[in-house]
Amino acid sequence: MRGLRKWVWLAASVALTACTQMDAGAARSAASVDQDTGNGAIATMKELRAVDRLSETTPYGAEACSNSSLPMSIDAHGRLYERLLEERGLQSNIEFEISPLKLAESIPERTAVLFYYSAGQTLCVWLIDSSGPSGFGHVPYDAARVEKLLKTFYRAERIEADQLSRTPQRRDASLPVIDRRPVSVPARNVLKSISRITFPGEVQQKLANYERLVIVPYGPLGTIPFAALPGPAGRALIEQSEIIIAPSLYDFYAARQAITDPFKWKLKSPGCHGGFDPDNGSTPIRSALVIGDPDFSFDPDFNMPELPGARDEAHAVAALFGQTALVGLDATLEAVLEAAPRSDLLYFATHGISYQEQGVNSFIALTRGRWAGKDVQNVCLRHVKLAVLSACQTGMGQTVEGGTITLARAFQKAGVRTVAMSLWNVEDEATRTLMTDFSARIRDGATPGAAMREATLETRKQFPLVRQWASFAVFSSHIE
Prior knowledge:
single chain, eleven-stranded mixed beta sheet
């Protein structure tokens, strides 16, 4: 195992409350209303124009950010990932080194890895394909700036205001006061500014060469809706490419090697003693555990609104796989724990709570119980090909430099091959349309990346607002 070294790390978080994200044990105050002016919580057009000019500047420390520094950045990424595993209470399984050449050899044709790493005040971005690094860029980096842009996007898209009636609230807190005033910055302008940071230099145009992108984010970049970002020619990135968010470069590389040598690259999971051989993803889904709209009245800390749309969604998805959904009083934690380890598909249409400071405590709400990330990661779910977390913010959580501690990552560490996660909560009808379409394509044999792309594009025809179609992402180390 690689030795850990000391470094300064950032425990940053995005103040998003589209469903419920909060500091552990903290109640939101009725007075905590962000103003467009005063505390500077929302970006202005002037600030967006400044972001758009970032690529024209040479950031401090840029000399440490080049193609020649890629091997050192990969190594540093591994150390940060070890730290993230420590934050989850897990032991690192990084027992190998990755060179750029080895990484390139593991990447299929028409696929590229978009790898991010921050060197001081500079964000380094590499586009790597089967031939090696094919594109490179750098831009001045400030995590707080990224978080501010994301918050501005959420406000501009009215994500929080439109979903207040479906948002769980702490029993011991006053109802939050949502600032419903429109912001002066259009959401499309914010997404354009975010893309200036995520796709700097030649990276932007070279994205057009690939049908599939595997994104290895850094810090809060993992919470960005990449599907909606303008790519080449200004089109939404999902229009041209499948998008997969990888847990880490090391997980992706190990999964690729396991295809040809599964014994040597046996995957490790805390709940699966001795590790397990990875599923090649080619066998069909035979058994599905589908949960919808549990009875939330038993939760000791939160008032959670019923989700009739989620119940309908669960019934529709279960029918696709010839199963019966567990809803209401039947959607218990005990039933999930009993059936999950022997299921091929897990599907949760329910509430989710994410925590900024203690990401491992983020949980899925069930009847008479919670399935928290710290418990999920210790269950052996090696038979699960796909977990769909159609719940609020299952892709959100505690952000550190090595990534984000989320419910999606907990399922991945438990042995789940692929997780479909959400970045914010969406209205019932749009979610049901998107995720039923996605599930039908999975049933018919599509890969998760392809199924999500096609379902997203189809849903966008009926629900054109970004908040309606861009909230889900595929989280996986595996590509088929």
